[in-house]
């Protein structure tokens, strides 16, 4: 399996963690059409062994966003289709087969932040910075950012980022919810991999519920959300694996929750 500007590798005894690296470092991992389509195809073709994934970027930056060199020739109709192409690709990330952990460093800007926000967990190192330079480039987000980013940080903060070009550093990014983890410089990948290995040990139906049901429940009116939650809970707990895990705890064979 080869993918333009992406490297795919596997970790774990059962190849249960997919490690995906954007390898367009010379262009700061800017996302051109070929790369966006590669991301889509890779997530569609992940082998059945895979239970979790990590995505990171080669070089000093996670991703510089849309490849601006491809922007100039597009008319309005092509612009709609182009944005929809991004939507489809990032939908495969968010609602793909497994949880995805993004390992962030350096620039996480524009479409790079849109990609990161389609992932389920973001781990940032101290070099990370976040921006939405679309505002200053005379354009708008087009990769799902206006849907996903306000759900992380709120409409007001995203508006500010785009109106003023505000850049968030790593600490402030973690504080406002752009990343769930902040680690020392150079350690984002290792932390993301450790989390992915841990996630890969969860019952598959639990991971499925968290990636596919939870974001939808969160969008539902409360009354419908409670009903969907009940259905999802019943499906998850009826799996033989869930029963075995609960039995293991009751028989003292499973780890207790440790104080943080
Ligand atoms: C690029 C891109 C790009 C770098 N498209 N070629 N995104 C932006 O507006 C961010 C634009 N990029 C930057 O601000 C900087 O490049 C960085 C802060 C990310 C990195 O700076 P630096 O000094 O390490 O690298 P550089 O010298 O600026 O760039 C190295 C090369 O990458 C250079 O090409 P070269 O041929 O002269 O070597 C750059 O032109 C190229 N490069 N970023 C094309 N983005 C679905 S809609 C989403 C809308 C958006 O994402 S808009 C935001 C776009």
Give the integer mean of the pLDDT values. 96
**Strand sequence of the main sheet, in spatial order?**
1-2-3-4-6-9
Judged by helices, strands and strand pairing, the structural class is: alpha/beta
Can you tell me the CATH topology of the largest domain? 2-enoyl-CoA Hydratase, Chain A, domain 1
Instruction: Give the fraction of residues assigned to helices.
Output: 40-55%
Overall morphology: globular
The tally of beta strands, per DSSP, is 9
**First CA to last CA: what distance?**
41 Å
Q: Tell me the number of helical segments per DSSP (H or I, 4 or more residues long).
A: 11
Over the alpha carbons, how many angstroms does the gyration radius reach?
A: 19 Å
- Counting structural domains, the number is 2
CATH class of the largest domain: Alpha Beta
- Element-level helix/strand string: EEHEHEEHEEHHHEHEHHHH
* Approximate strand percentage: 15-25%
CATH architecture of the largest domain: Alpha-Beta Complex
